[in-house]
């Protein structure tokens, strides 16, 4: 089978909850589209020389959110790419605005139970360091959904879809927009 070639006109910003697959699916998507993959969390860690949990602890969440806004702005000014945003990034109006101006947002939607299965074994997510992390995740899902729902496109996750399946589904969603992907 001949592989399709695409030209990406706008940066694709992956949004959604922790464990939605922004990093994993975003990486696979970038490979399919042959564009760079960038992750705002990773860029913040690189610039601060400290893990996210430590930034939250030492400088507070507000400081982290300011750095996140700056990093997303910088990455959006670069060539079109796949940009995985942090789980809380799309909650802020200033991030939704800057993403809307320069890119297209894709919400990777997943049921809370599926998210929990994916994140339960990791302790690197500062917002889940609570007495009942499962409940915290459920509560975050409920309060955040209206914000994620403002994304330009929604792609549903399911336990039976692999990371690759999800990347192909995102490509199909992007093709519904006239101004994002050109088939070459
Ligand atoms: N469709 C999928 N199929 C199988 N595993 C998946 C899928 N999507 C994500 N995962 C796995 O779930 C875990 C969490 O995914 P990932 O780190 O990509 O989430 P994230 O949205 O980037 O979360 P965060 O906001 O915390 O960075 C990873 O181990 C990843 O490989
Ligand atoms: O959901 C969130 O608010 C977060 C998700 C991660 O991607 C990191 O950006 C950080 O742990 C905060
Ligand atoms: Mg991630």
TrEMBL record:
The gene is aroK. Its EC number is 2.7.1.71. It is found in: Cytoplasm. One of its GO terms (molecular function) is shikimate kinase activity. Its cofactor is Mg(2+). Catalyzes the specific phosphorylation of the 3-hydroxyl group of shikimic acid using ATP as a cosubstrate. Substrate binds at residues 41, 65, 87, 144. It catalyses: shikimate + ATP = 3-phosphoshikimate + ADP + H(+). It holds the Pfam family SKI. ATP binds at residues 19-24, 125. GO terms for biological process: amino acid biosynthetic process; aromatic amino acid family biosynthetic process; chorismate biosynthetic process. GO terms for cellular component: cytosol. Binds 1 Mg(2+) ion per subunit. Belongs to the shikimate kinase family. This is Shikimate kinase. SUPFAM superfamilies: P-loop containing nucleoside triphosphate hydrolases. Transmembrane segments: none annotated. Monomer. It is an enzyme of class 2 (transferase). Pathway: Metabolic intermediate biosynthesis; chorismate biosynthesis; chorismate from D-erythrose 4-phosphate and phosphoenolpyruvate: step 5/7. Mg(2+) binds at residue 23. Keywords: Amino-acid biosynthesis, Aromatic amino acid biosynthesis, ATP-binding, Cytoplasm, Kinase, Magnesium, Metal-binding, Nucleotide-binding, Transferase.
């Amino acid at each position: 089978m001949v592989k399709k070639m695409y030209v990406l006109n706008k940066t694709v910003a992956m949004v959604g909850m922790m464990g939605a697959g922004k990093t994993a699916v975003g990486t696979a998507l970038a490979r399919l589209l042959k564009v760079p993959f960038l992750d705002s969390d990773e860029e913040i860690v690189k610039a601060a020389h400290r893990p996210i949990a430590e930034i939250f602890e030492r400088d507070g969440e507000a400081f982290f959110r300011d750095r996140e806004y700056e990093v997303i702005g910088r990455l959006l000014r670069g060539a079109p790419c796949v940009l995985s945003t942090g789980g809380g990034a799309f909650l802020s109006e200033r991030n939704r605005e800057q993403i809307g101006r320069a890119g297209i947002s894709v919400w990777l939607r997943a049921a809370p139970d599926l998210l929990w299965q994916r994140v339960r074994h990791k302790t690197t997510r500062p917002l889940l360091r609570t007495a009942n992390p499962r409940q915290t995740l459920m509560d975050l899902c409920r309060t955040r959904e209206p914000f994620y729902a403002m994304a330009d496109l929604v792609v549903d996750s399911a336990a039976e879809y692999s990371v690759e399946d999800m990347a192909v589904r995102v490509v199909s969603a992007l093709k519904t927009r006239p101004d994002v992907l050109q088939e070459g």
